Structures are given as structure tokens and as C-alpha cells.
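Give me C-alpha cells for this 842-residue protein.
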Amino acid sequence: MSLRLAARLARRELRGGVHGFRIFLVCLALGVAAIAAVGSVRSAIESGLAREAAVLLGGDAQMEFTYRYANAAERSWMTDTGAKVSELVDFRSMAVVGQGSLAERALTQVKAVDEAYPLLGEVVLDPDMSLAQALGPSGGLPGAAMEPVLADRLGLALGDRFRLGEQEFTLRATVTHFPDGLADGFALGPRTLVLGRNLAQSGLLAPGTLFTTKYRLDLPDSADLPATAQAAKQKFAESGLRWTDARNGAPGISDFTRRLGAFLVLVGLSGLAVGGIGISAAVHAHLAEKTATIATLRTLGADRRTIFLTFFLQIGALTLVGILFGLAIGGTVPLLLAPLISAQLPVPAVFTLYPEPLTEAAVYGLLTAFVFTLWPLSRLEDIRAAALFRDALGRAPFLPGWRYLIATLLALGLLVGLSAWFSGSLWLTLWTAGGVVGALVLLAMASGLVRFLARRAGPIARNRPALRWALGSIANNRNGAAQVMLSLGLGLSVLAAVGQIDGNLRNAISRNLPEIAPSYFFVDIQQDQIEGFVDRLNGNFAVQQVETAPMLRGIITRINGQSAREIAGNHWVLRGDRGITYSANLPADTTLTKGDWWPEDYDGPPLISFAAEEAEEMGLQLGDRLTVNILGRDIEARITSFREVDFSTAGMGFVMAMNPAALAGAPHSFIATVYAEEQAEAAILRDLATAYPNITAIRVKDAIDLASDVLAGLASATAFGAGASILTGFIVLVGAAATGQSTRIYEAAILRTLGASRRRILLSFLLRNALLGAAAGSIALTLGIMSGWAVSVFVFDTGFSITWLSALTIITAGIAATTAAEIAFAWRPLTVRPSGILRARE
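Here you go.
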């Protein structure tokens, strides 16, 4: 009976419109819209990747080998398994135009293909022609195509000649689209496309050269992809094979999208928590306005359950309205902006209405509204009818009854659990939830401290009426001082954290570079070239330092006879091949942390020295046996020492070093780092590239700039995700200012009656909000720095240093936001006649 009556009363309440609930609806709709929009874009990208997976990969499956071609057994298996097979060789080289000192050089990622390429999709060329025409012979030279930026950098026009190593090519076209571009991964230079057989005389693919081979398979329609993958991995388990198939054709992009999407959704949840403060405040303000109505119902015999259900149903109906508005905005905005978003994305995306992210956002909205409305609603039970007639809603106990408290905690637990499930990151979710709860607790404590200090600051305000009135208003919590602290503080905390993350992402590389970084990395220096290479540099007065080392690449497949991934998980050292060097003596700049180096003339079973930090992360111990696949050959070596390796120096760093006899006979090349005066870099490159056309030079500054661009894009994405949070926080702040207007009007009437001028009253209002803004900004600064440190160190692994410009801007923003809100709502209290206000209060 009480439910039916409550529903009827709630329906009558709703006839009065949504007055007093506008902030409630806006906060809820904004939070839901932000989460729905981020989830919709993420789903669009995932759908695009799934639909185009085989095209993006370049085939149904790919077998990749490190610095070697497939052997006869591997080729035979691929031919028997696939309907078509395409071979691709990927490596870095220098594209050269001209001769001698006038030659122009640029780093390029060479993609050497066969006639079957591409198995799926189409390479788009300018001018429009077939790939066979572009790569075929022209004027007695093989043809080539390259990305437009590389042609522009070298000043090449169609028909011009250029060299790769010792082989000349004719530029026949520029490439505007690679169908398998995402599968190619990160490249330090624009791509050049040639036929693999035309590199036979280039001198670029000599034994030991750094290159990767990829074999794309077009499987029969009847093929069982999971079974085929399992068969390949079992048959070639010890070969160093890396298998990829159309189930995840661009794993790096897919993982990045998923992780970034999860992070942005959690940022959106933080924004929803900010909105929750506004929701709670709106409910409290509505109940305060309905004091007479509640008192009347209680006097007429309505029990507590009926009154609770009346307002619970009313707010529940408005919650559904707010969520629907949020879903409409979050679902349609990505559709409307689909052309713009697609143009900015490096991946295909299919934009449509996706039920999963919309459902996720709706669930978040329902739970958030429940958590933040149950608390103020529950306080109705402890208020008597007589107290309600005296407008004493604020005298209710702070904590609700046990059943409401338990229901709130259960809803919070459900919200956190669903967040972890939807985002796929338990620890990130727990840290986010803990950060939000901790921020609210700290802000609530800070609010109490600010009121305490305001009461104690009386002597400071002596003979300063405006300041004394402002402090008195804060001390008595009039005009929602605590609400301002919570809403503004939490919103600014999110913004401050994103500002710190942004700054640390942008400085991640440059901050860690040494004072003197190498000018160039040189790779693919052959064994018979290294002596002459070093001699040329030592004779150059502009060269400050030269470091060289032999280098091979290998994949760790086993640890103590067991699968490496089973022992060390998904550690980055195991995600692909790693550089390996050898040395008879302990290098002069190497520090051992444990164990001993092998004797100079050691010729026994293979031994290995491992990077100390990575060994600790992987759980390795002295004496452990590592199986490393190098050029298709398994080498089992025992760990005899750990050594310090600093990868942040931009110099040479090897995870693994072995004794020379262990790698005897293995074809390999040398790498070198050259430190030189900047003005001499171009001349050094010309001299070395002319003498050794097969070597590849990588300019360190260019590599840093490229990585910085990637990090800048990530930082922009996080800043965009935080925009909804800070906007919600400002709206909550405006709502707090609006709901406190009645108190402000009464206060102004009293002061004007006592002779205060409008100017002094306005000054007191502004001082009050400036003080609250400064306090909220200071707390937000602390919380933002702590949160930024946690995310930077534990999520992005970039290290951390405080970005002071961003940090200090937060305090200024806090003061400016509260002052702007006060100015917007302070004029009316100063224009209302005091007599009318005071008579209404009699």
C-alpha cells in the first residue's frame, strides 16, 4: 500500500517540473555521456580492427623470424598449409641521392616484397598504377615506390634515381596507402617499397645484418585458424618463430586502444564521482525546500517508509531521464563526429551505436546516482515532524542508519567490481577508486579544518568587516562551504593529476637523456669494416667519442628448461628479440652487481651476464639456465653474473652479454655510437656513408622527436578525457552557488539593514569564495601530484617530476572558478529590498 501511495505522491511531485534538479540532471548526463562516448569510440576502433584484421595483417596468418630467412622445413610447412604464401623482408637503410659530398641521405624503413604481395588489400600508388608496374624494371634499373615525405625530403621526382646500399633504383611512384601498414609496427623512417630479389646486389642483406622476415599465409576457407596456430607453434617451438594471425592482426594497436580506452573510462568515472557531489547536493537542497511538504505528510500520518519511497521514486525517475540524455549525447556525438575522428585515427573504425558501451555507461550512472542519493534520503528517517516545521533538516545525524550504510557500501563494491570487469584492469580500477574515495575523505577533512581555522582567525579580521563576514560565513558553513570544497576540490584534483601526467609524458624521454647524447647510431657495420670505420672517426677532430660492440639478436625461449613466459610472465624482455653482445674481458664501463665475469680465454659451455634490474623483475638467479634462439639455433647458457645497464643514456645497452666462444661462427655485424659536435654531424654522415654504403645511420635526435610525438598524442588524449571531469566540477560549483543564493540574500539583507554598503558586502562574498577556492586548489594540488606520480610510475612507467607551471595554475583556476561563480550569483542579493526579505522570515 505504501509503495502505491508513494508512487502517486512522486508522480504529483514530478508535475512541478525539474526545478532544483537541473544541476542533478546535467551532472549525471555529462558523466554518462563522457563514458558512453569514450566507450563508443573504443568499440568503433575494436570493430574496425576485427573486421579488417586479415587485411591489416596482410594475410590470415604471419610467421616472423629474426634476422634470418625461413629454412627448408619451415617453407615446406607454409607451402603445404597456405593456399598462398608471400615473403617480406623488413629492415632499415639509407636512401641516397647524388654522389660524393653533394649526396643527400635519409633514413628509410625498407620493405622488400615478392610478386605475391599483398595477399589481401591493395597498395595505393600515385600516379595510379599496379604494384608490378611500379616495382618492375625501367631504363635498365629496378623500380621502387616510397612514401611522399621521404621523396620530398630527398628532393626526388618521379623517374629520378636513388640508391639503397650499392643498388640503384628508379622512383616510379609514391605510396599513399599500405594495406598492412599497422602490422609493420613502429618505424624510425618513412618506408621504401622494392622487390626483394632486386636487393641481391645491394650488399644490405649480408650475414649478420639486422633484418626481419615475415611470411604471410592466405589460408584455405576450410582452415581451422586456432588449430593451425597451435600446430605451427608446436612444430617450430624452438625456432624463434613469432606467430600472428587475423584474430589479432594488429596486437600492438589493439592493446594500446584497449588500455587507453580503459584509462579514459576510469577518468570518466572520476568525473562521474565529481558529478555525484552535485547530485548529492541537489538532493539535499531539494529536500530542504520540501521541508513543509514532508512535515505536512508526517502530520497527516505518512510513515517514514512512504516518505522515503516518495522521494526515492521521484529521484529514480529523474535519474533515468538524466541517463537517457547522457546516452543520447554519448552515443550520437561520436556518430556526428565520425568523419573528423576517423581522419585523426591511424586505424580503421566502424562507427555505429554499440550496446555494450552504452549499457556500461548506464550502469555506471545508475550506481553513482544510487550511492550519492541514498545518503541524503536516508537522513529523513531520523527527523521528527516538529523539527521539520522548524527547517531543521541540517540537524539530522551525519551518518545514516546501518541498513543504508551497508546498501551504500554494497553499491560501491558493485560499481568498483563492474569497473574492473569492463575496463579489464583490476589494479588500475582499485587505484582509481581508492584515489577518489581518499580524495573525498581528505577534502571533507580539509573542509572541517578550513571552518576551524576560519573560527580561529577572528583577530586577523579585526577592523576588516568584509573579511570578518567572509570568515564567519565559512565557519558556519553557510552557502555550502563544504560542498564547494568537495566539488571544486575533486574536479581540480582530476585536472591536476592529468596535468602532471601530461607533463611527465612529454618530458619522459628528454628528462632521462644524459647531458651529452650520441649524435648517431650506426648499425649493420660488417666485421671486415669495423676497423676502418673506427679509424676514420678517430682521425676526425670533431668526434668526441666512439663506442662499438658486436651485436646479434636472440629470443629467450626457455628458463631452466621451462617455457620462459611461464616463468617470467609477459615481461618486456620476452616480447620479441633482444640485442646480445659478447666480450672476452669485462668492459671498462661495466659494473657487476653479483657474480663474476668469465676468464679471458674461457672456452667451455656458454655463459651469460644479464642486466641486473631486468633479472630481478623476471626472478632470475645466478646459475639459472637460459635458452636463447639466435638465427634459428638454440644456445643454452648459464647465468654467471648480473650487471648494471642504464637504458636511459641513449647509448648502447645490452640485456645479455655472452662469452665469445658461445657465439663462435654465428654471423653478425657491429653497432656503434658516435658522439660529435652538432655542426659536424652532416659531414661525418656523408664521409661514412660514402665509404660504407651498406651501413645505416640513425640520428638520435630524430628518434627522440618521433617518440615525443607519440607521447604528446597520448597526453592529449588523457587531457581530453579529463575535460568532462572539470566541466562537471564547474557545473557543480555553479549549482552550489545557485543553491546558496537564498542564504546569501538573507545575509545581504541583514548587513544592509545594519548599514553595510553594497560594495563591502560584495567584497565579503568574493573574499569568501576566493578563500575557499585557494583551499580547494591547494588540496587539489596535493592530490593531483600524488595521483600523477602513481599513474606516471605504475601505469605509464615514465618516472615522475613535478610540473610546477601546471601545478600552480590549478590554484589560480580554483580561485578564478569560485570567484566567477560568486560574481554570477551575487548581484541579485544586493538588489533585493531588505524589508521584504526580513518580513518573509518573521
